[in-house]
């Protein structure tokens, strides 16, 4: 450094005011999230209300399950739920108590982040990260939850590990897992305990107890993960949230550079531990995991700014006193990041779900006045909480085919008394289905011109209504004097992953007292392999009180989802009747036939072929004014004793009258048969009565030559015939002239 250079200081008062400024920061930083949260109000995310309902039931001494499914908030966040229930017992409304607890949690988290920055001896990191967290949009999306407290305790455990304050770390870990028992917190606890073992090479008593608790928690979580299918669908939501933030402020792009600098600035051991924890958070995908990732990113951004300040100071190019340079650079680097955070909060504030919450409150008030306390609602958690009714929660956001099938299966199994829909793609798909319209009627509508989710509609369940002509009629006698009078299903063309929706229309000929199971299933027509199956009780349990009387109709609904491995072909859709224990199928009777059968064929569910015929030779010959042979592939030369394939490409001109058999014959010069293969199309996988005009059906037949066949030229012929009469379908050439032997000559094949 130039010895004659004089440093310029803009902060001569700093030495005398340093303690006062630090005290002001300790006071101001925790107040910021309090201001943000209280200004936002009790406009919580829908999933928050499961914990609120659990706390309310606990305070009132009611059962926690509402009679539907186990409530996990008490297991997941015992301290938080107990605190809410105690607040309710003290007369504080639970939503207000949840708001206060969560904003206090964020204030504690900000203080803990500041402490963590000081623990790593990064004062700039401490201040900048704490300010970024205090103004973060994460504050408002987690209001009403226990997540802020988990952030606070997690930060304290890390700071205690850095300072080697093991007793403090043990206490904070216990509070962390009692605040939120989740894969993300268990992963953090396990990694910190492993790091402690690496540092000390031994485990005192408290870490042993914490590790035991963590292992129990891991076991429970793993069981839950085995029950629930693994999915990374949350990544798409996270990407969408990030894109929305970037649209609100371009300054968010600056976070990437500072996060990268912060990541490179931490110690290698901590970097690897952090990478493992990030992997756990990404795999978990919960709301808590996303929030923890966000807070980690903000801390790394503060660390990156600190690293940037140190680098600029090391260059020694600015004639500023050290404190002035540090404060100035930190402020300049923080300013765009803070502006981005503040912009997001100000942008979202006018769009809080105030009007939507008011519409849900109106719907809940109506339900309280027009429903019984035990009647079930299918809708948002918030409506169920406000109405104080048992709830099957669905947020209506997803709109894919699998989600539609899952929703209809839920409605089929549970048949809730009321559904509360709002304006969304998911709800629109559900409410437009024939099934939903058949069983639910709109009862009340709540509208506001100022909310995109309006209108909110309350739907009420009613017995299935159907009239003759709306379904395919049947005359099938089921057990206990029940008639299967008709059915319908859609679609009849599917691909792997699609769902087939089936309705069976039953009618009681006498009052029904016994129960049985009706079973709808999709099986292979050729080998009986089962691809999809669903069963339901007939009559429903609720009907046993006497409402299903003589002559009263009942519609049963099934959702059959096709597996990924289902092959191309026409698969049989059938129904059966099983005993209540599902151990045996019961006999059923068709019409006046006294011979019992086990199943009734309802039709075909077809997985069409979607390939190309690029290498096929064109034919275009008509068979029986029903089917056209479009093209084929076959070898021109073969050897004695060899096998070869002939692939035929068929297309129906109209729906074929019968299920026909295909013949493929190889004839010598004298018309004698030397090789052949007869069988239904696609070895029975695609019956001709399931063909639809415009669809191509690839049909491969395997022929084998005799090893003693002489060399020469042979003629390849194909056609179709009825079974069992073996009457061939008429073959008409392009000119319309009918071929006498009713066979199509494809080509000659040379045997070498």
Write a structural description.
The protein has 21 helices and 24 strands. The protein is elongated. The longest helix has 29 residues, at 287-315. Strand 15 (617-623) and strand 16 (627-633) form a beta hairpin. 43% of the residues lie in helices and 22% in strands. It has four domains: 28-228 and 247-351, no CATH class; 377-399 and 407-461, D-Maltodextrin-Binding Protein, domain 2, CATH 3.40.190; 472-607, Immunoglobulin-like (Sandwich), CATH 2.60.40.10; 617-751, Macroglobulin (MG2) domain (Immunoglobulin-like), CATH 2.60.40. The relative contact order is 0.06. The strands form five sheets. The protein has a five-stranded mixed β-sheet, sandwiched between helices. It is α+β, with helices and mostly antiparallel strands.
List keywords for this structure.
752 residues; alpha+beta; D-Maltodextrin-Binding Protein, domain 2; Immunoglobulin-like; 4 domains; 5-stranded mixed sheet; 5-stranded antiparallel sheet; disordered N terminus
How many domain modules?
A: 4
Summed over residues and divided by their number, the pLDDT gives a mean of: 82
Reported for the largest beta sheet, the result is: 5 strands, mixed
How much helix, percentage-wise, in residues? 40-55%
As laid out across the biggest beta sheet, the strand order is 2-1-3-5-4
Instruction: Please count the beta strands (DSSP E, at least 2 residues each).
Output: 24
Strand content: 15-25%
> What is the radius of gyration?
36 Å
* Secondary structure tally, helices: 21
Give unreliable regions as ranges: 1-11, 65-71, 225-230, 465-469, 541-547
Structural class: alpha+beta
């Amino acid at each position: 450094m130039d010895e004659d250079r004089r440093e310029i200081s803009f902060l001569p008062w700093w030495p005398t005011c340093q303690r006062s400024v630090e005290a002001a920061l300790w006071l101001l930083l925790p107040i910021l999230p309090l201001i943000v949260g209280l200004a936002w109000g009790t406009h919580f995310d829908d999933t928050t209300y499961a914990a609120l309902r659990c706390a309310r039931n606990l305070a009132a001494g009611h059962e926690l399950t509402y009679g539907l499914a186990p409530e996990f908030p008490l297991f997941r966040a015992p301290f938080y739920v107990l605190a809410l229930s105690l607040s309710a017992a003290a007369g504080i409304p639970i939503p207000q108590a949840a708001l206060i607890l969560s904003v206090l949690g964020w204030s504690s988290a900000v203080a803990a982040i500041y402490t963590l920055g000081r623990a790593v001896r990064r004062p700039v990191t401490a201040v900048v990260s704490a300010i970024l967290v205090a103004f973060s949009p994460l504050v408002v999306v987690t209001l009403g939850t226990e997540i802020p407290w988990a952030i606070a305790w997690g930060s304290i455990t890390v700071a205690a590990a850095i300072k080697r304050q093991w007793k403090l770390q043990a206490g904070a870990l216990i509070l962390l897992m009692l605040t939120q028992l989740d894969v993300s917190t268990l992963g953090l606890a396990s990694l910190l305990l492993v790091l402690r073992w690496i540092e000390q090479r031994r485990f005192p008593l408290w870490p042993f107890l914490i590790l035991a608790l963590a292992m129990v928690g891991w076991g429970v979580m793993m069981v839950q993960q085995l029950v629930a299918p693994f999915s990374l669908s949350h990544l798409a939501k996270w990407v969408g949230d990030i894109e929305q933030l970037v649209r609100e402020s371009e300054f968010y792009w600056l976070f990437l550079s500072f996060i990268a600098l912060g990541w490179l600035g931490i110690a290698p051991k901590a970097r690897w531990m952090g990478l493992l924890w990030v992997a756990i958070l990404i795999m978990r995908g919960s709301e808590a995991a996303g929030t923890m990732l966000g807070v980690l990113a903000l801390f790394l951004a503060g660390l990156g700014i600190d690293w940037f300040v140190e680098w600029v100071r090391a260059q020694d190019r600015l004639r500023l006193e050290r404190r002035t340079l540090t404060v100035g650079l930190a402020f300049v680097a923080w300013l765009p990041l803070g502006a981005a955070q503040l912009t997001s909060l100000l942008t979202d504030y006018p769009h809080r779900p105030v009007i939507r919450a008011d519409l849900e409150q109106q719907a809940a008030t109506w339900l309280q006045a027009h429903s019984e306390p035990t009647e079930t609602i299918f809708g948002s958690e918030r409506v169920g909480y406000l109405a104080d009714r048992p709830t099957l929660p669905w947020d209506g956001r997803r709109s894919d085919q699998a989600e539609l099938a899952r929703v209809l299966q839920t409605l089929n199994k549970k048949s809730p008394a009321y559904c509360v829909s709002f304006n969304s793609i998911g709800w629109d798909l559900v409410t437009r289905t024939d099934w939903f319209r058949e069983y639910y009627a709109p009862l009340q509508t709540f509208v506001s011109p100022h909310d995109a989710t309006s209108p909110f509609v309350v739907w009420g369940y009613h017995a299935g209504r159907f009239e003759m002509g709306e379904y395919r009629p049947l005359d099938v006698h089921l057990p206990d004097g029940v008639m299967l009078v008709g059915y319908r299903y859609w679609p009849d063309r599917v691909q792997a992953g699609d769902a087939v929706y089936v309705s069976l229309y039953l009618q009681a000929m006498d009052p029904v007292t016994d129960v049985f199971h009706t079973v709808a299933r999709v099986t292979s027509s050729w080998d009986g392999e089962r691809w999809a199956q669903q069963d339901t009780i007939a009559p429903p349990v609720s009907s046993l009180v006497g409402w299903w009387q003589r002559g009263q109709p009942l519609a049963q609904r099934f959702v059959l989802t096709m597996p990924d491995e289902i092959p191309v072909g026409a698969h049989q859709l059938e129904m059966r009747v099983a005993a209540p224990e599902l151990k045996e199928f019961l006999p059923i009777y068709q019409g006046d036939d006294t011979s019992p059968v086990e199943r009734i064929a309802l039709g075909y569910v077809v997985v069409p072929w979607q390939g190309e015929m690029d290498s096929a030779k064109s034919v275009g010959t008509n068979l029986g004014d029903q089917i056209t042979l479009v093209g084929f592939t076959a070898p021109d030369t073969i050897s004695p004793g060899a096998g070869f394939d002939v692939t035929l490409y068929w297309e129906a001109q109209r729906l074929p009258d019968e299920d026909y058999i295909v013949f493929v014959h190889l004839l010598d010069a004298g018309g004698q048969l030397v090789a052949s293969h007869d069988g239904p199309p696609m070895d029975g996988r695609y019956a001709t009565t399931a063909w639809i005009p415009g669809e191509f059906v690839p049909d491969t037949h395997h022929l084998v030559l005799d090893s003693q066949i002489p060399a020469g030229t042979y003629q390849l012929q194909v056609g179709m015939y009825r079974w069992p009469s073996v009457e061939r379908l008429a073959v008409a050439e392009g000119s319309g002239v009918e071929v006498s032997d009713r066979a199509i000559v494809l080509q000659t094949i040379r045997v070498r």
